[in-house]
């Protein structure tokens, strides 16, 4: 990972609320902390190629799933439609957010959140998050098929 990514990410990763994400499994065999770092890194790489706002991308991506429950077994009903607002509330306790960072967190589940992303940075994080989630799911399927 490059120096710019680390310099943006480090202050957030050192925050106890963000560090706590390591205690939650997000997709099988992957903690929520690993997931948000992966989404932040891949989004950062795409953002660089497209000359977008790297700082907003990394910070928004690191905070996009900042919730503290096992979403498969507990937490609010309709988690998919609601957790972006929970993450946003929690993210505001960690740091002051720019409008772009707010939009990245709020819209990362689009099109479930009907209002589309307002900035290209939000769209990148949304697409990368979807890609990572589908890939994790397909990996699980691959493992299951392999082991059966
Ligand atoms: Fe999410
Ligand atoms: Fe996510």
Describe this structure in words.
This protein has 148 residues and is mainly α. Helices cover 64% and strands 3% of the residues. It has helices at residues 3-13, 16-19, 32-49, 54-63, 79-94, 99-106, 120-147, and strands at 25-27, 30-31. A two-stranded antiparallel ribbon has the order 1-2. Strand 1 and strand 2 (30-31) form a beta hairpin. Helix 4 (54-63) packs across helix 6 (99-106). The longest helix has 28 residues, at 120-147. The chain is globular. 32% of the residues are buried. The model has no long low-confidence stretch (mean pLDDT 91). The structure holds fe (ii) ion (2 copies). One fe (ii) ion (FE2) binds at residues 64-65, 83, 108-109.
Strand line-up of the largest beta sheet = 1-2
Query: Total number of β-strand segments?
Result: 2
Largest sheet: 2 strands, antiparallel
Rounded Rg:
15 Å
Helical amount: 55-70%
Poorly predicted residue ranges: none
Average pLDDT reading: 91
Strand % is under 5%
Give the overall shape: globular
Helix tally equals: 7
Order of helices and strands: HHEEHHHHH
Structural class: mainly alpha
Distance between the termini: 36 Å
Ligands (ions, cofactors included): fe (ii) ion
Main attributes?
single chain; 148 residues; mainly alpha; two-stranded antiparallel ribbon; 2 strands; globular; binds fe (ii) ion
In short:
The protein is mostly helical. The protein has helices at residues 3-13, 16-19, 32-49, 54-63, 79-94, 99-106, 120-147; strands spanning 25-27, 30-31. The structure holds fe (ii) ion (FE2) (2 copies).
